[in-house]
Amino acid sequence: NAVEGTELEIPVLLAAFGPMRRGEICALEQSDINGNIVHVSKNMVRTIDNRWIIKTPKSFAGDRYIDFPDDVIRKLPGRSGRVVSLNPGQLTDKFEKCLKKCNLPHFRFHDLRHTFATMALQNGVDVKTVSSMLGHYSAGFTLDTYAHVTTDAQLKAAQTMGSILSRAV
Predict the structure, then answer these.
(1) Which segment of 17-31, 55-69, 73-87 scores lowest on mean pLDDT?
(2) What are the angstrom distances between the C-alpha of 150 and each of 121, 147, 162?
(3) Residue 147's closest CA among 136, 158, 160, 155?
(4) What residues contact 58, with CB distance under 8 A and at least 6 apart?
(5) pLDDT per residue over 106-163, tens digit each?
(6) Using CA atoms, how far apart are residues 166 and 158, in angstroms rounded to an integer?
(7) DSSP state of 110
(8) In the 8-state DSSP scheme, what is residue 90?
(9) Residue whose C-alpha is closest to residue 9's, from 94, 82, 69
(10) Above pLDDT 70, what percent of the chain?
């Protein structure tokens, strides 16, 4: 709710439901969007002399197509050019200020990607699909780095095992 209607709304939606990296979000152009499909083919990075430039993704897997929910696509501006006018540093700064203003605990903008992966996996999305959406080269990396165990998942596992045990006895 805190980001709704602000310049953070679109970046948060793209990271949490995409899940795009902050540099990919900042480099995204309207021409990269076709219907609900977003072609992630660019990344905004800082050079050694502190300039922000747009370049190709750091890996082959980083160049990908992501199918976004209708609710996210409807929020995107219809104008040509870059979808977000921020650079990654500004995005991080504004996100941190928003968290403080809302009295939320610190977490990184990048953690929205972790949340996406965890929620998708726990809701039955195949790990290879999640890995592809994240732009990872292997499902193993996705599982090792992005799949987090939640209390709900532990409870569900305990209930499943209890059900198995009760049938066996």
Answers:
(1) 55-69
(2) 11, 9, 18
(3) 136
(4) 43
(5) 999 989 988 888 888 888 888 888 888 888 778 887 777 777 655 665 667 677 777 7
(6) 12
(7) T
(8) H
(9) 94
(10) 93
